[in-house]
Amino acid sequence: MPVSVAPRRPAKPITSPAALRPQLPDPALAITYDEARRYVQLRLRSLPHGGLRATCTAFGFPYTTSVGLKTGSLQREEYRLVQKHLRVFGFDTELVRLYVDGQLCEHYLFADASLLATLREQLAAHEQLVS
Asked: Where are the domains of the chain?
């Protein structure tokens, strides 16, 4: 019985630094976890009575953790949950890690500056009403 040998896979092409440049995240299009969390908290607080449970049920979010996010009583940072809520509110982001003061920190990267500007305008308007 002849032995068959699988053909060799071609080597992966080496990517040049110039080819990687467009893939690197632009820090100008990113916000920190704290800024994103504040925005999500304000949006969750603006839901009508019973709206949080309905939202969690409709989108499959954990209700208890979402309540903790709304009230600011989370025991740990919930990066993915904040990102999922941002998507529901119309902000599709990518979770990336960027250096801040020599440490890698989670940031939410927006596809374009107009979405980021919209989020920041809404956040500023809400915070102005609260203060």
From this structure: 28-130
